[in-house]
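Researcher: Predict the fold of Cytochrome P450.
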Amino acid sequence: MDSSMHFALLLALFIPILLHLVTRFKYSSYNLPPGSLGFPFIGQSISLLRALRSNTDYQWYQGRIKKYGPVSKMWLFGSPAVMMAGPAANHFIFSNKDLLFTGTRSVNLLTGRNILMLSGEELKQVRSALQNFLSPEMVIKYVSKMDREVRRHVKLNWVGHKTVTVLPLAKRLMFDIICSVIFGQEAGSVREALATDFQTLVKAALSIPLKVPFTRFSKGFNASKRIRKVLRGIARERETLLQQGHGASADDFFTYMLASRAEGAHLLTVEDIVDNAIFLLIAGYETSSVLITFMLWHLDKEPEVLGKITEEQDEIARNKGPDDALTWDDVSRMKYTWKVAMETLRTIPPIFGSFRTATKDIEYQGYHIPKGWLVFTAQPVTHLDANIFAEPSKFDPARFENNSSIPPYCFVPFGGGPRMCPGNEFARTETLVTMHYLVMQFKWKMCCKDEGYKKDPSPMPLLGLPIELQPRCLPENAHA
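Model: Structure tokens for Cytochrome P450 follow.
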């Protein structure tokens, strides 16, 4: 090993220790929350990741709450952080204007200068554009495209197969829907080039952000460069079409953002738009694929619930011809199916926590939270609280018969308050369209009835959920 390598290793060890000492000295006069920052730079990251992967994260959160109370400090994913727990904490985090919606340091490095990194007028402009692009009025236009992608996927990957593994298929379907509906990129070589790199990028999203060769983060960082190059090429093509007077009516993300980028004080660059496109990919990919996977997982164990979903979907299919695409009205009638989805989101939320960054020194319950610190809340703390949801381990979609009976800021799979996830309507629609065709065309049973799951960081069945398929005999006048 040459001297330069020795120096690099010593520097890599020295900088985190120095940063840790500086942090302790800088905030020595603050009334920080109880807890330990732990080992420099890494802190509790490995401990939490280990709990997620062993599916003991709820116990991990409860252990910290029992030891330190509902507010505690730590070092997490490269940043000093404060964990908050409970409905009051959720309300504080989702409603406080001084807490900027953010990702972990790893996510920010991988995705670039997206909406999570912006503030002020620039944030308002980009958020407004994203909210408009993903609004219910726009999602209505996307239903037919989603329908086409789901039919193509099911025919190619499910029909004629005796067994399938659900999670990788669900992930690929969500990726294809985003590419087609949001990016306007149909099946082909460009989409295939993105798919493999994108999986590598997602795996790196909650790794420790060290650019050391062959680590998960390093592989993800290199994949993000390749993804950015492809998306930049798509954006440039759309920009050229707009300059030539074509494509102004297109409803894909790149054309929409390029056409509206001058509608504010900040002129969005192509790089800004590419960075936000990567953010949309990550945000939309994991949530819906995990939700669909665990809906099938639960429905295998809950035949009565499956029967009610089947009855609802059969009724919708009776009013359609064999080649008719689903419409927005059809999706709006899938009320019980969505209750099942919400109960799935409660029991197994696709993301383990919501992250924010303090834009200035703030105070919560008498504790100081310094500017720049990460603040996060974990969804399972309220989702599995027996004081909020009776028999929390029981799968019961009836909990959502009356949403007003659920206390505010207790069910938060998409965030809450004024900063609700702008893509929740898109996620709801793609989930319901997918479930319609799976329920209508197949009966299934898990190959391994005792299959458990882990979180890495999103929940995933240990085997990916392999299931045995049987074609379903449709009722009279129903068409899949």
